[in-house]
Amino acid sequence: MTRHATRTSRSSRPLLVTTSLAALALIGSSCSFVGADGADGADGAGDAPTEEGSGPVVLLTHNDFSLPDEVVAAFEEQSGHTLDVRPTDGVGNLVNLVAEQAGKPSGDVVFGVDNTFASRVLGAEALTSYDGELPSGVATYALPGDDDGALVPVDNGNVCVNIDDTWFADEGIAPPATLDDLTDPTYAGLFAVPSAATSSPGLAFLLATIAEYGDDWPTYWEDLVANDATIVAGWSEAYFGEFTQGGSGGTLPIVVSYDSSPAFTVDKKQSATSTSALLDTCYQQVEYAAALDGAANPAGAQALLEFMVGPEVQAALPESMYVFPVVEGTELPTAWATFAARPETSYEVDPADIEANREAWLVEWTDVISR
Amino acid sequence: MKRTASLVALAALPVGVLAVFFVLPVAGMLGRGLWPDGSFAPGAMLDVLARPRVGRVVWFTVWSSSVATVVAVLLGLPAAYVLHRLDFPLRGALRSALLVPFVLPTVVVGVAFRQLLREGGPLGFLDLDGTPVAIVAGLVFFNVAVVIRTVGATWEGLDPRPAEAAAALGASPARVFTSVTLPALRPAIVSAASVVFLFCATAFGVVLILGGVRYASVETEIYLLTTVLYDLQGAAALSIVQLVAVVGLLTVAARVRRVPDPTVQRAVPRPHRPRRSDLPQVAATALLLGLLAAPIVALVTQSLRVDGAWSLTNYRNLTTTGDDQVLLVPVTTALRNSLQTALDATWIALLLGLLVAIVLTRRSRSAGERRVRAVLDGFFMLPLGVSAVTLGFGFLVTLGREPLDLRTWPLLVPVAQALVALPLVVRTLVPVLAGIDDRQRQAAASLGAGAMRTALTVDVPIVLRPVAAAAGFAFAVSLGEFGATSFLSRADHPTVPVVIFRLLGRPGEGNYGMALAASVVLAATTALVILAVERLRVRGVGSW
Description:
The complex is a heterodimer. By secondary structure, chain A is of the alpha/beta class. Chain A has 13 helices and eleven strands. The radius of gyration of chain B is 24 Å and the shape is globular.
């Protein structure tokens, strides 16, 4: 009897459990807000090609992409397309995604490919050329080797060594000016560098040293390490964690950052900035947008590219994405115009060289800094 | 037949979900490494494994994770006892506060750790900055809660009478612990340890931020190969090493965990007031809590300092979009998004976790059946052992376009987060469900209770507490999850960690202060929600 009862109860348990879990799931889903308001999410990729002036444009980009609502609304109104933004983790993964999906993309446009990764996208033949006109000044940022004009420059910025001017004034030490200076014992133990292997400004700084020292760059890095440079994981750790002006009680007055950074350390009266970028140590980064080959909405893609170099986006770039516009004559925010000095010239490395040597350079770099 | 059918019915949903959201993306990535250009070419992959660097990396990962796991277990056990068996004011608050490290962004904790450890910092005299000791400390900081919660959930339901009997027969407290209590806790301890080890072995930010960049782990290496170098063959090679190691570890853990009779005598004891004999445990717990609190206190303090004075400005700014409109939405909106996402992830993880736990703990009638259960057991732990980059990028390339376009599916992020939480849910529930004495059900049935009534009077009261504990885990994991979320985030629906990441990407003290304040708010929200759930559950027990 007992045994029989047990069997009954055991074999009907799954049913009971499944029913109660299903009920739980129903309750769960009914108070799921995501499920409720997400249903209107655009589903553009993979749809049949849309007619001109309609349908969503799917933009593949990185997590730093951001444009004000009114700028997005302006695009949607002017072009008749809606904008569906799909951000992913960082430039590297974005570029790999585009390369991986060459010819069968999951979007119409990519934005955020920079000059250190652009060769990878070109090599994968994932792009189609841009039909529109480039406004004045944009062509100077074109990627060497992009013969079809597929990559449309959208913004730029320089990775430069930054210094805390107040610290150097207080200590009565003359601040450094060049890459060479950073290996001088005067500046021993004062420099914070983000890793070239895990951060994009870190890689840009490594490229600056490669441009300056050629094949001797490992020696320069040995000297940097010997001069007690602090190498940390990323830009945030370097700037916020180590830099004296980063706000967390850091102790190092020299850091790798951007040419726009001094615009963020302005005093309350907006009269002076406490940091400056060393303009002889800069490596230029350019971010590109491009139409994807095989896109579902090619007309929308072209319209979005045109809009990205149009006045609304260009003017919004500094405050939304912390980069400089590429179109000549675009007005900058006051703090940027006043305090973010720009280098006359910056270091460059041929994009094809970067793609060919990135692995060897990073392996060697890691060896040098681990010694 | 019926048994097999019901087993399959119960297992179908979790297995299906894991197949689509885990096996498919990971297999896609491994396939790209093993079949570059469509033809099978494992040669290049083997070359990768022959690099001397790979050996160093694997060795570092194994030893740092092992040490961190041992330390987490040693520190976690006394705390599990104190927080789950003793009765003292604010016990519930402390227990929920322990989950705070789970949701803190690694960058923020990393900076707080460095503030403590660097030269001139409060702990600078220890000279630990950038050493492996700092990495281990960081790993323990993030993972000790797993030990405390998993072991505590079992410990609080442990019948005290065998221990009391042993003591009455003259056994010393140490002897009682080693010969009575420890064996009863072994399954839970091994469960917790294997989860902690997997978390440590796949930790990314902690190793990079606390170790400087001199130490590379398998996880950081896979990131470098996949993201920066686009060397999918090399990444696949390391992923396979990772998978093989994880399967080996899980097999060993399953062996060690197995006890002749998993049944636990239950007479849920009332927690008692601390006695003089509890002093060592209480002291050890106080020490641990102090260590956990140090970086958090540093973080909170700093979030309240603006221009060298105390201020709530950083918190007031959370309703804005930051200096120069850095954010698309204010942090308050992101917090709502995070809570919604976490709610979804929690019910998904609980639904799947309960199904899995039931499947795993039903008594097997044949060796074959037992083997199937053992394989399933390991299968649901696998997501912990695979690199976030492999999984995240795998999601993008396999689920991002036809035939399976889930990129804009609103539940994609919650499902991904639920998979991360699933092993924790399963490992919390399995020891408890396995511990239910089947004779209790038989007794209920023989007294005339139907299936529903039996479940309600026998299973539910016992499972309720661990389910609440598991829900807390899932909720916290989801709130803090950044790895998979950063690959799949929705532009119009950013979660708090995504927003913090963005704030930390811009200079400006205001942005950094807001990132700290947002981290503190995220942590406080987590603690409060979990506290509320635990309160609710205690009342619930009485009403069943």
